[in-house]
Amino acid sequence: MFSSFMTNAWLSGTIIALLAGSVGFFVVLRGSAFAAHAIPNGAFAGAAGANLIGVNPLVGLVVFALGAAFGISALSRRTRSDVATALALVMMLALGAAFLATSNAYEPAVNALLFGEILGVSSSELLPVALLAVVCVLGLSTLYRPLLLSSISPELAVAKGVNVRVIDVAFLVVVALSSALAVPVVGALLTFSLMVGPPAAARIVTSRPLRALALSVVFSVITLWAAVASSYWTNLPIGFFVGTMSAGVYLVARGWSLAQSRRPRGALA
Amino acid sequence: MVRFLFEPGLFSNDTVRTALLLGALVSIVSGVVGVFTVLRGQSFAGHALTDVATAGGAGASLAALSPLVGFIGGGVIGAGAMDAIGVQRVKDRDVATGVVLGAATGLSALFLYLITLQTTTTGSTQSILFGSVFTVAPSTVPDVLVLSAVVLAGVTLIRRPLLMSSISPELAAARGVRLRVVGLIFMVMLAAAVGLSAIVIGSILSTALLIGPPASALRVASRLSHALVLACALGVAATWLGVVFAYDSYYWLGSGRGLPVSFFVVADVAAEFVVVSLVAWRRRQRTTALPESLTVPEQVGWV
Amino acid sequence: MVGLDLLEVDGVDVALSGRMILRDVNFRIDHGEFTGLIGSNGAGKTTLLRVLLGLQDVVRGRVLVHGAPMTRSNSSVGYVPQKVLFETDVPVRVRDFVALGIDGHRFGLARRSHHTDDLVDEMLESVEATSFANRRIGSLSGGEQQRVLIAHALVSKPELLLLDEPLANLDPGSAQEIIELLHSVVTDQHVAILLSAHEMNPLLPVMDRVVYVANGRVASGTTDEVVQPEVLSALYGHHVDVLRVHGRVLVVAGGDGHGDSLVADHPPVVVD
Questions:
Q1: pLDDT digit string (tens) for B152-169?
Q2: Full-prediction pTM beyond 0.80?
Q3: Closest approach of C138 to chain A, Cα-based (Å)
Q4: Which fold has domain B16-286?
Q5: Which of these, A196, A189, A179, lies nearest to A237 by C-alpha position?
Q6: A contacts of B295 (beta carbons < 8 Å)
Q7: Nearest CB neighbour to B95, from listed A81, A87, A196
């Protein structure tokens, strides 16, 4: 499992989980799980399109992920955000289906993009992936305070002079870039699981924002490691483990909090 | 021009006729259920249930059960799970939907992998995931008819408490509406509706028809009945045009390969949305009063 | 300070969606003054507050803070909205939330020094929120949340605090506590306060000035100056009576047979 050909899997997977956990903290805070699900699906369409015209798939992933992000932002001005996300999502998927139909897409390759492939990132791609990940992390750190405030209360943020619209778009861009990176390894359909389950579990466990963010990352990384290991041992698709384990982490945290509330306490909180 | 639109053999083709009939049925059910889905801010749940239903279908296929049972059953189980995890506040629902969707998609990954191990036919993944109204067997028509009727009847029965609780949960609760019960019943209807449409027209179109035409209708309709009728009409129009164009595209593009139905229907749905938005915008220009419509601000917390 | 008032509203007209909401609004607020913005629901109080925050454009006139035009991110003015809906499991404690009042608008990660921590503690104590400082913001009662929102706004040391109907959702006991708290903020921290309400009676003991909004117009001055039949009748455009019973005030339309209570939220007067 730790042989040299698996090194890339561990490295890229860890980078992706680090990103997904940090981005996910805000995704859950803002109730943007739908957007986090839609954007990677957009990225998938981009990969299919890139394949069609013979361009590097990473380019397709990034371009379409950003397109989905901007599409959702733009549509959200005209209609409620969940409708905007749904419309953007189906348009991307329809395009993806059209691209697939007109190209001779190799089915296992399509499956890998949808459900993940631990060996999805090659050695040559590792450096661009790491660089983009650093960009995203820097972006998130810069946005941290105004993003936190405007996620809790847009009204208060506006009153303090924060340009909430810009922050919203900037955040979606970070989600888009993170998704583009994650899709080759975790799969378009499961990327968002890492951004929802583990962070949702983290915020149950702690009430402090920075700790919740750190814990989101920790849970996300552990989930991904467990998924990679399980996928390696059973030869089953990694997406299966990512989806079910992310859900599992959340359910365990929920169970723990239920148990806590039932136990009689010595002193009042 | 007409000959260009209706390529030879369009209407005499059995597959096309079945597609048009089933497409219309599903559009109507999606339109009706979709109006409430949009009003309740449950578009994510509606989409998620499509994928959950697909997982159910893959599982059923693996277990050699009827796919219909899998799609509908999977959807209903998913709806129950979402309800159990959390429905109180909008954002709790978001997490619940996301977690269930993730787990279901993970299961899809497993089932589809196991299926590819079992069978030698390629393309099974994509046909289950993306589906096509052209590949549904005519023998399923009676089942689809019955199920559509059941869902429509169900929604009609809870129509009034459903509307009240969708627009103002507080008022509904004050009037004695059991919000939790109505919410759960609606979720089950929603699961059945999307399960049905997912198996007939595929998961992409299922979401498109559930959200697109209803959202368009709600932008211009000021009464619920108008919204429902318009949503159905727009849905049927988009589906029929999509089927016609998809059939035609085999001829237009040559080389025996056309563009998928889903592409055309979604394009139609998007076009409808644009046109309707323009109409609504023109109306707003002519009056100074705020437009009356059934959309509700997002800040309201739903149950 | 000679010459420049803290806040000056000069000949302001405000319109929304083509409709004139407020006409010819004139008033001033001085340092350390407690002003009530009184009017029934829909009178335009929230619109006026948004104008004062720089979030709403005016059709005519100007809003000056220290003699300079109001901009959106003016740090002299703090804001307390009526109610914010926090999800129960948002991982932000009361003290984290108050700290965001200091630097929530600055980019970058939080850099909390001892100085900031002390400031937060001091603020929490002044609003008597120390006992629940470590609880999640989504777990607070209405009254507790008001205190926290006030602390969040005060921690950046504004000179003027705007509050949008802080008493509306509170029971009379909590409302009274908040009023006393705000009064001490004015006297101890020398912060001017402008708070909107549809009931002025609870505020009578602490209000220095009243800005009374009705019928799209505004009358301002001390309570005795403004709450007079002549002034209010001119404002409403028809005859209005002002009754004073046991230190409470009731504004009632009368004399011309209509008989509706204009400021309908006042409970019926019981003469005892």
A1: 999 988 888 888 888 777
A2: yes
A3: 10
A4: ABC transporter involved in vitamin B12 uptake, BtuC (1.10.3470)
A5: A189
A6: 79-80
A7: A196
